[in-house]
Amino acid sequence: MSATGLQRILVTGGAGFIGSSLIPELLNRGNHVTVADHLSVGKKQNVEPFLSKDNFDFIELDLIDGNTLKDVVKKCKLVFHLAGNSIVKTGYSNSEIDFFNNIVATRNLLENMRTSDGCKKIIFTSTSAIYGEAQILPTPEDYGPLKPISMYGASKLACESLISGYAGTFGIEAVIFRLANVVGPSNKHGVIFDFFNKLAQSDGKYLEILGNGTQKKSYIYIDDCVNALAKIGLRPFDSGLEIFNVGTDDQIDTNSIAQIIIAEMGLQTEIRYASQQNDGRGWVGDIKNMLLSTEKLKKIGWKINYSSNESVSLTTKKMIENKYNTIKKFDVKSSPHSLVL
Ligand SMILES: NC(=O)c1ccc[n+]([C@@H]2O[C@H](COP(=O)([O-])OP(=O)(O)OC[C@H]3O[C@@H](n4cnc5c(N)ncnc54)[C@H](O)[C@@H]3O)[C@@H](O)[C@H]2O)c1
What separation in Å is there between the alpha carbon of 83 and the centre of ligand 1? Predict the structure, then answer.
């Protein structure tokens, strides 16, 4: 407990997309929040609105350096551990990035929790990528064997194993959330952000899709995701380690995402395909068909508000409202570019 009597929560990676959206939820529930982030992807401006609050502080640190964490961890009661590499593609060109930012960073955090007096609970954001190319869809939490096909998925599964080991051996309590693709207007990576930037670069003339566009996945809106993390993560525990999938009940393919964005912008755009992989996937490690079962989460009261289609549409509308890299609207009649999908 802090001097004010509030619960002190550490949010690692709190300057990133999901972390900065989670902060208001935790503050509104009467907690003190400390964000630790090394700002490789996250931005200080994402936590700027909270800096003037008495029950918030920000520390710039790298979790790979375990020593710098010690003082931060010992002041906190529980940790939302969101820091890590979040981009699947990078593992192919740099096989170290997931190892250090996910596995080493998580091990350092757990070790500091183990040696602390009172910081014994971790809420971890894992990923659907740990299932690899699951043969059962929607995939339940007890699906196996787990065979991730990316360095990202492998590293997240290794983090889950470490957390399980620390739970079994040292009594650390843990909730692991396996997230589908999370979308929202403040996300600075992923397919929607990528398409907005590509459209701006080509002035709306063409859009390059990685893969053949038939990849089907679940896309959850940020508010639904944050609601699961805060509501379920903060509730009293039934056991030392709990695992929940977080996603929508449906899927959307990449071609349809492109269509939604192009239509919302009022463009006529030529679609081009960069099939980097022969079987149509967008990159090495890309999963072509992903849908998670969320029955377990629903049984304990979590409700979802947006489907995948609605999540993509809402994100697109808000990005246009916020004027994120929007381009001048084309006069559809006079535009020489055709929509080829
Ligand atoms: N966004 C998604 O679709 C999605 C899906 C599944 C799982 N996740 C996981 O949820 C978490 C949050 O995702 P996000 O979309 O907000 O990603 P993000 O990249 O926006 O945020 C991650 C943050 O962690 C920080 N970070 C990375 N390595 C660090 C280190 N060594 N020390 C300190 N800070 C470090 C980055 O600077 C960044 O601010 C990630 O662990 C990600 O793998 C995200």
Answer: 5
